[in-house]
Amino acid sequence: MNIFKLSIAKLTAKPFNTFLSLLLFAVGVTIISLIFRFEKRFEQNFRQNIAGVDLVVGAKGSPLQLILSSVFQADVPTGNISLEEANKIKSNPMVKSTIPMALGDNYKGYRIVGTEQSYPDLYECKLKEGKWFSKSMDVVIGAEVAEKTGLKVGDLFTGVHGFTQSGHHHDEFKYTVVGIMEPNENVTNRLVLTPVESVWLVHSHHHHHEGVEEEDEDHHHEEAEAEEHHHDEHAHEEEHVHSALLDSALYKVEHQQDLSKEELRAYNDYKGILQEADSDPSSEITALLVFARSPIAIASLPRIINENTNMQAASPALELNRLMGFLGYGIETFKILAWIIIVISGLNILIHLTNTLNQSIYEVALLRALGASRIKVMFLLLSQGTILSLGGWLAGIIISRIIWLILPQISAISFTGIQGISGKELLLLLYCFIVGALASLFPAIKAYKTDIHFILSKI
User: Fold this and answer.
1) Which of 10, 97, 256, 392 is most open to solvent, judged by the fewest CB atoms within 10 Å of its CB?
2) pLDDT in tens, 110-142
3) CA 77 to CA 101: how far, in whole Å?
């Protein structure tokens, strides 16, 4: 007698009950498996994006917001800090090195980050094509940016003020794509990187126009409306001419060609803005990534900065541990819910097998009469419970993998591909096996104790 084949036949004889038991197990396993994968992915993502950064210095506000905006590019910055004050932090003997971050613009939702070459070096980024930025308005884009926007090396584009696509367009200054990075698993995959000077150049010009607009608003609207409209059109035309001259001048300078008087004037204006921003004590950056010389420095610098400056210093590791602590309550709640679902599925197996045994008690007696031992009859019930539980585990694992593959297609979440079975999932398999075995133990013992003579005497 083949116990396995007979167990399958018994289960398929009642497809609805069998399907319900498998479904409950699969739902619980799917939830737990996805939680395991989310936890592992988030932990890897946090570790990769922190990349050894000891502290982040920025404007006072929420420390967690500062970390999310400057390290993970996932929140609005707390504000700007003075370049002069940032340089004081940089020259502190407890500081090994720093990386400046200047934010404020985006292109089609992807953040434009003003920084230094040390930033992509920190994440060990490699170029897929092109070269690294070497001058203002050069940009190197992440692989996701290139894929989603269609930008290629040599393309020109303008940034949008703010972090949404509906902001003010900086039409007067065009960025040039000089390189595209290889795909990676860190935040640079979705960034547009450029020198800090690019951000200063764009926003120095932007602030100048804001000042002009504010002065215009002081006039009577009725008298100045037509004049302002004419002025705006004229200024817009001048900006386009200036932008074309600057693009031509930068190209000729790079290729060591002679400039016309107009191009030379545009180029000198451009260099003047950069020099002014670089030497201007009022120049600002968004944040400073700090690498300390020792663990003592990591502990001391935040107190010194927070108490003696108008800036704050936050530890990425500390803030993210705090964040994971908050998220942990929700994650554990989902886990408990999934474990309960699996236990309920075990109770469903118990009820299903008990009812099946009661309805087929004569079949059990007949099997015994045909020579099946008590142990074989007992294993027949046990095998049905374990088949249901292991089948539910397998179905749950498959469903979780399918969801894992589909999620990046329907959301902004990015994951790695399908991986093997984890150690936690193997422990989950053991748990499911035990639940299935325990659920079928009662009907199995009942079948073992069945008095075949008494049952057959009723026929």
Assistant:
1) 256
2) 999 999 999 999 999 999 999 999 888 899 999
3) 11
pLDDT at 239: 47
User: Is the CB of residue 342 less than 8 Å from the CB of residue 430?
Assistant: no
Q: Please determine, for residue 16, whether its predicted confidence score (pLDDT) is greater than 90.
A: no
Question: How confident is residue 253, by pLDDT bands cut at 50, 70 and 90?
Answer: low
Of the pLDDT bands very low, low, confident and very high (cuts 50, 70, 90), residue 190 is very high
Confidence band of 359 (pLDDT split at 50, 70, 90): low
What pTM was estimated for this model as a whole? 0.70
